[in-house]
Amino acid sequence: MSVKSIMIVGVGGQGTLLASRLLGSVLVTRGFDVKVSEVHGMSQRGGSVVTYVKYGDKVSSPIIEKGEADLILAFEQLEAARWLGFLDPKGKIIVNTQKIDPMPVVIGKTEYPEGVIDALKRSGADITEIDALSMAVEAGSSKAVNVVLIGSMAKHMDIPVEVWKKAIEETVPPKFLEMNLKAFDLGYNG
């Protein structure tokens, strides 16, 4: 199989790193060569976080260049806009409709831009928008946004649901397992 590229983008504290661990685990169990690179920009202070995941028969580097991502999983609207240029013209972007104010908005220097998702759609990209925050709350915790988004991504990949659920069972602490499985199902079926 040719090499596939996935970017997981968001804001520090949203669970992007757990999402990348789940994805990597699933891909390894399917026998792919997997390379992952995480880039943290002030992640503990709500800054941008991006994870590059490449997989296939033989992967030499995890770095994804502009126009190369087959799929971008965006945990937040502005992060989707920030990384859109990395999407392959035939790629797909899944965008959480959630808005998280970046520092310039928090300190009152600017306002969160309106119409981010509409602008993404006007770009011509194949976009799926999902209210992952509402689904996570329905599952039992706003912190399950990451697993809702993994569920949404999973339905666009040729990997059986059982493989994803097994990876969740092996990654998530037992006391949060039921909630995370529900979050995955809501994202997958949403």
Describe the structure.
- This protein is of the alpha/beta class and 190 residues long.
- The chain has one domain: 3-Layer(aba) Sandwich (Pyruvate-ferredoxin Oxidoreductase, domain 3), CATH 3.40.920.
- Helix content is 39%, strand content 24%.
- It is built from eight helices and six strands; from the N terminus they run βαβββαβααβαααα.
- The protein has a six-stranded mixed β-sheet with strand order 2-3-1-4-5-6, sandwiched between helices.
- Strand 2 (33-40) and strand 3 (48-56) form a beta hairpin.
- The chain is globular.
Quick structural gist:
This protein is of the alpha/beta class and 190 residues long. Helices cover 39% and strands 24% of the residues.
